[in-house]
């Protein structure tokens, strides 16, 4: 398949996602989730399933499309822009990639259930996940250990303690395990790839949410009048918006590229660097969006806070900016020392 065809197919998936979310995950939907105190809804998950987005990475023999992860980088970016309150990254990306790489009837059964929209999966990946996203809604917890052990836990085998999350549309929980669960397989390579997918996928979500902050800010300063002029016409405001745009554009390019390269030799380094940069872009977007919206940005009634909270939550998920940069620095120093010795 040529790159042109791949790009066309990926763009078609993004357009499909934007159209779906524009109709079924708009502000009314997000506000309803906040009012009711529940993030996940079977109705929206069913819509994502019907379009084939949930089963995109599921192998064809288990009811999916069998696509490569590179097809979903733009989809994840779109999900971030729409602040989708569903465990898409965990279920449709990380879990399907892990289960699809494992032999045995147990993994196959879960893949079929995911493809049919009958199962949500939460993921715990060692020290990357002190808190587990959407654990209370999950039909399965995949526990990926550093030693390569991959275990599945049913809800009855878990002690789930919800925590007060900054972003209520991405609920978090402490998870305690009862017993050893079901050993689905053992593969350090599969676990390493799952870590890369989680980090790079979160970078895509983060870049998408930052893009929405930028778009909301540009829209507001173009409309808000002061001294008879739109505030967006003032030089200081233009500079702030331009700085946001540059950072968001670069974060998007880094995130999409890292997700597309999850099977390259340096995949985790690229993913970690992309998420760290996306975290910086998100921080700038958060600060400037709030400031440029003035007093209205602090209110519950205005919808800016949905994305302010989303980027803060995502920036701390699957490795903070500081943690990932520390990891990269240690690897770099170790490689320099190895060269020096060799």
Automatic annotation (TrEMBL):
Recite the UniProt keywords alphabetically.
Answer: FAD, Flavoprotein, Oxidoreductase
Fetch the SUPFAM superfamilies from UniProt. Answer: Acyl-CoA dehydrogenase C-terminal domain-like, Acyl-CoA dehydrogenase NM domain-like
The UniProt entry, under InterPro entries, shows: AcylCo_DH-like_C, AcylCo_DH/oxidase_C, AcylCoA_DH/ox_N, AcylCoA_DH/ox_N_sf, AcylCoA_DH/oxidase_NM_dom_sf
Give any GO molecular function from the UniProt entry: flavin adenine dinucleotide binding
**Gene3D superfamilies recorded:** Acyl-CoA dehydrogenase/oxidase, N-terminal domain, Butyryl-CoA Dehydrogenase, subunit A, domain 3
Ranges for domain Acyl-CoA dehydrogenase/oxidase N-terminal:
9-118
Specify whether Cytoplasm is a keyword of the entry.
Answer: no
| Domain of life, per lineage | Bacteria
Name its co-factor(s): FAD
> What range(s) does the Acyl-CoA dehydrogenase/oxidase C-terminal domain occupy?
201-333
Q: Is Oxidoreductase one of the keywords? A: yes
Family per record = Belongs to the acyl-CoA dehydrogenase family.
Question: Can you say what this protein is called?
Answer: Alkylation response protein AidB-like acyl-CoA dehydrogenase
Q: Which organism is it from?
A: Nocardioides soli
């Amino acid at each position: 398949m040529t790159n042109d065809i791949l790009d066309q197919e990926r763009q078609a998936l993004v357009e499909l996602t934007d159209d779906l979310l524009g109709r079924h995950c708009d502000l009314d939907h997000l506000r309803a989730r906040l009012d009711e105190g529940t993030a996940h809804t079977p109705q929206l998950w069913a819509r994502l399933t019907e379009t084939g987005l949930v089963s995109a990475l599921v192998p064809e023999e288990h009811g999916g499309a069998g696509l490569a992860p590179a097809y979903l980088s733009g989809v994840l970016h779109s999900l971030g822009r729409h602040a989708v309150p569903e465990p898409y990254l965990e279920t449709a990306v990380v879990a399907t990639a892990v289960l699809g790489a494992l032999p045995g009837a147990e993994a196959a059964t879960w893949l079929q259930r995911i493809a049919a929209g009958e199962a949500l999966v939460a993921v715990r990946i060692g020290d990357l996940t002190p808190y587990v996203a959407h654990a209370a809604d999950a039909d399965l917890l995949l526990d990926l250990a550093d030693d390569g052990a991959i275990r599945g836990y049913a809800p009855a085998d878990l002690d789930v303690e919800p925590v007060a999350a900054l972003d209520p549309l991405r609920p978090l929980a402490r998870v305690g395990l009862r017993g050893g669960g079901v050993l689905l397989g053992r593969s350090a390579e599969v676990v390493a790839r799952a870590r890369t997918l989680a980090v790079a996928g979160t970078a895509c979500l983060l870049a998408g949410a930052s893009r929405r902050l930028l778009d909301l800010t540009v829209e507001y300063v173009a409309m808000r009048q002061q001294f008879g002029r739109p505030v967006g016409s003032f030089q200081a405001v233009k500079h702030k918006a331009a700085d946001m745009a540059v950072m968001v554009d670069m974060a998007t390019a880094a995130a999409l590229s890292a997700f597309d390269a999850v099977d390259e030799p340096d995949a985790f380094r690229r993913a970690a660097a992309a998420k760290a940069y996306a975290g910086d872009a998100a921080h700038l977007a958060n600060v400037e969006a709030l400031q440029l919206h003035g007093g209205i940005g602090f209110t519950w009634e205005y919808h800016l806070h949905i994305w302010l909270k989303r980027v803060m939550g995502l920036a701390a998920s699957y490795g903070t900016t500081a943690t990932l940069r520390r990891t990269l620095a240690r690897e770099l120093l170790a490689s320099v020392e190895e060269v020096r010795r060799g």
